[in-house]
Design brief:
It is globular, with a radius of gyration of 14 Å. The protein is of the alpha/beta class. The protein has five helices and five strands. The chain has a five-stranded mixed sheet, with helices on one face. 34% of the residues lie in helices and 26% in strands. The chain has one domain: Leucine Aminopeptidase, subunit E, domain 1 (3-Layer(aba) Sandwich).
Amino acid sequence: MKTELYDKILSHVNTDSVGVIWFSEKSLANESEIINIFDYLVDGQMRNFAEFAKENNIQIESENNFFISNNFDSPFILLNFSTENEFKTKDFEDFKMILSKLGSHKNKNLSVIYPESYKLPKFVKTSKFEIRELAY
């Protein structure tokens, strides 16, 4: 079922998006509309990962969760990061390193999606990527 949030996120993440950094307030193990939207973007990998983590007692909220998929026949990466943790420069550097391994990102943007209550770190806003922010 399409909702306003669904339309907002899917129109924000477009063919020019190389990836998304998604700051989440809820655990990936919980069912929610926004988790379902991002699960759709990575072809169900998020649900599969959450089930695997639960079965193996892996605490996914304390880790950076990377999902690699395709966006219109181009590699696409989703980084999920819990707002409960501090997003550090090293976390962003790790993400950029993975992006660099996926090929050229010339003329591509990076979507950063976060709750309205979250303060986006300055080093993300001032990176060399064309940042497309979306607060929900």
